[in-house]
Design goal:
Length: 262
């Protein structure tokens, strides 16, 4: 004679106590009870307006009440409702766990590689900004691409540093901003002054000069020798619009005759 196992399996499934699962199960049962009460109240209100329809709706309810008078069947119904509620909860928790596992497999490196313009952002004419606004715009680009602590420190006594930040991989970033016109490129003297302070004074791991007017050939040569990254107008536009990674990830050598992008 076969031994029924359904009851044992149900008891085994409910044996392990899970606070989150139990709380969600009770919440779902409460919603079902509230929904049933709301439906009964609506039926009661409709008795005065449509007696025949109300009688037809109440008839199966009366039959159900007669059935539920038997204690044994009431327990079965309650158990069935509870099992159904827990089944729904288990399915939802399984989907949440699967989503968390998928996010864990992506790893933290995915966020570090995420760079690009904000949704809906258009090209910015950096050469049209005043010097203070230009420094803040460069700091905002750094923050957008993972340097959450980027701040503008330029001003009197800044010793060549306009923006200080920490790159996503933990390096010290020091940026000098040159908001020059198309006929005024950053020269070797500009780079030499910055090179004399960016490492020794500010402790830079990554030193960057951003110039809206481009750079002269001697300035580019000096930057190459000292490990300073030069970001001209074309590189700045590509960085801003998401066409190139931030300078601390991929340094591009600007041409000596670089001119602003219009």
């Amino acid at each position: 004679m076969p031994i029924p196992t359904r009851g044992r399996e149900a008891r085994k499934r409910r044996a392990g106590f899970d606070l989150r699962r139990t709380a969600l199960g009770f919440a779902l049962i409460a919603l079902l009870l509230v929904g049933g009460g709301t439906a009964l109240r609506a039926v009661w209100r409709s008795v005065g307006h449509r007696p025949l329809a109300a009688v037809l709706l109440l008839l199966p309810v009366a039959v159900a009440l007669v059935v539920l008078r038997r204690r044994r069947r009431a327990r079965r119904v309650a158990a069935a409702v509870t099992d159904a509620a827990y089944g729904i909860v288990d399915a939802g928790l399984a989907e949440l766990d699967a989503a968390e596992a998928a996010r864990a497999e992506e790893g933290p490196g995915e966020e570090k590689r995420a760079w690009g313009p904000s949704r809906g952002a258009g090209p910015v004419n950096y050469a049209a900004l005043d010097p203070d606004a230009f420094e803040e715009a460069v700091a905002e680009l750094c923050r957008r691409d993972g340097c959450g602590d980027a701040e503008v420190v330029g001003g009197a006594g800044d010793l060549g540093a306009d923006v200080l930040a920490t790159t996503p991989d933990g390096r010290r970033l020091v940026v000098q901003c040159k908001r020059y016109g198309p006929e005024n490129r950053a020269g070797s003297q500009d780079l030499q002054r910055f090179g004399g302070t960016c490492y020794a004074v500010h402790g830079a791991d990554v030193a960057v000069v951003v110039s809206t007017g481009g750079f002269t050939e001697p300035a580019v040569d000096y930057a190459d020798r000292c490990g300073i990254l030069c970001v001209g107008p074309r590189e700045l536009a590509a960085w801003s619009e998401g066409g190139a990674p931030p300078p601390w990830e991929a340094a591009g050598r600007p041409a000596a005759d670089d001119t602003p992008v219009r």
